[in-house]
Inverse folding.
């Protein structure tokens, strides 16, 4: 059967057809496509394939998609604002509590539990360490999650993450490479 | 985008209007399900909104946007994979250029030379959907969003060599998938005359 078999040749042909080769490499492929039957055959197959692929059309988005997106963004902004107000109230109450303790004297209490934010950061750091390359998209999602106002306002990560992100987090934690 | 970063919120609405069609089209080609793509499109722009302050003007906005869309889509594909088991590793093949899993689809009609446009759309969608996720993404970004290898490498966070490999493998898999179901006659009928190298 005619046509190229070696992956390296197919890559060169594909890149040449996409205009991604230049200089001697491009000239070499152009010459081979003209003179070599296997190169010519594969070139014609890929040309026919490209022509067929161009016939695949995507539908337009629904007419109300913009409105729907903007509604979702507005809801998110309102939620963020409410959380910041709530977090501010909590922070203010915490400051007052600390001030009262200092005024009245330190109570005899056992070591405090870690700050909620520290627990969240530790969880993220553990999941992000030694991530395999194929999981880099999940890392992007986790880093985006880290930036959410809700996380920065010291809420539990599990309160704000959706089911998919939680599943990715669980999978990454299970597959973490052992620490050296 | 810069106007939005400066706090001009109406700029975000304009940003959505200008980009929603291409985001929707890209997502639909990756996951041909209208209801799901509407949800995913919304998720893409929500993430743009949340992470707007991280955007740097040195980076092309379209590349940044497509990267977010790719993340959203790949997460959705990964979730779908978990729900309906589909093996990630492809079996060995005698022809090392073909990575296509040979599972006959009983819904498909037998090869037919008089393929109408609607049926061709279905066959194309199936063939693209049969590709591994990264190949699917690479071919869609190159063929339909007309992105260079360098831009695709930024979206996929890989080297341009890796993009080159992904695209050639995707082309081989699609060639094999479409030949198997459509036959060479249809490809010859629908092709442009051979000539210039790029389509």
């Amino acid at each position: 059967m005619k046509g190229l078999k070696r992956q390296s040749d197919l890559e060169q042909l594909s890149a040449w057809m996409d205009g991604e080769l230049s200089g001697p490499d491009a000239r070499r492929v152009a010459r081979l496509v003209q003179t070599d039957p296997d190169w010519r055959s594969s070139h014609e197959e890929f040309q026919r394939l490209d022509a067929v692929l161009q016939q695949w059309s995507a539908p337009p988005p629904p007419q109300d998609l913009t409105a729907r997106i903007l509604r979702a963004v507005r809801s998110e902004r309102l939620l963020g604002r409410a959380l910041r107000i709530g977090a501010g109230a909590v922070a203010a109450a915490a400051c007052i509590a600390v001030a009262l303790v200092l005024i009245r004297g330190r109570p005899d209490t056992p070591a405090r539990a870690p700050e909620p934010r520290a627990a969240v950061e530790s969880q993220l750091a553990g999941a992000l360490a030694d991530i395999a390359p194929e999981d880099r998209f999940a890392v992007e999602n986790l880093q985006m999650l880290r930036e959410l106002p809700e996380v920065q306002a010291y809420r539990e990560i599990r309160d704000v993450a959706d089911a998919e992100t939680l599943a990715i987090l669980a999978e990454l934690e299970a597959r973490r490479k052992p620490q050296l | 985008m810069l106007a939005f970063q400066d706090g001009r919120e109406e700029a975000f609405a304009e940003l959505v209007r200008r980009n929603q069609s291409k985001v929707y089209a890209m997502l639909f080609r990756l996951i041909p399900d209208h209801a799901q793509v509407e949800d995913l499109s919304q998720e893409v722009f929500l993430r743009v909104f949340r992470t707007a302050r991280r955007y740097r003007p040195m980076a092309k906005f379209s590349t940044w946007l497509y990267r977010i869309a790719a993340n959203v889509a790949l997460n959705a594909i990964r979730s779908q994979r978990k729900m309906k088991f589909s093996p990630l590793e492809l079996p060995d093949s005698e022809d090392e250029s073909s990575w296509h899993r040979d599972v006959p689809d009983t819904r498909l009609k037998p090869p037919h030379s008089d393929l109408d446009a609607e049926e061709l759309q279905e066959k194309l969608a199936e063939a693209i959907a049969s590709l591994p996720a990264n190949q699917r993404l690479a071919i869609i970004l190159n063929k339909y969003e007309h992105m260079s290898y360098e831009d695709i490498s930024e979206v996929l966070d890989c080297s341009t060599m890796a993009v080159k490999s992904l695209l050639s493998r995707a082309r081989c898999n699609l060639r094999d998938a479409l030949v198997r179901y459509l036959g060479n006659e249809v490809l010859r009928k629908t092709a442009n005359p051979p000539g210039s190298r790029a389509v």
In short: The mean pLDDT of chain A is 70. The CA atoms of residues 138 and 144 of chain A lie 10 Å apart. The two ends of chain A are 51 Å apart (CA to CA).
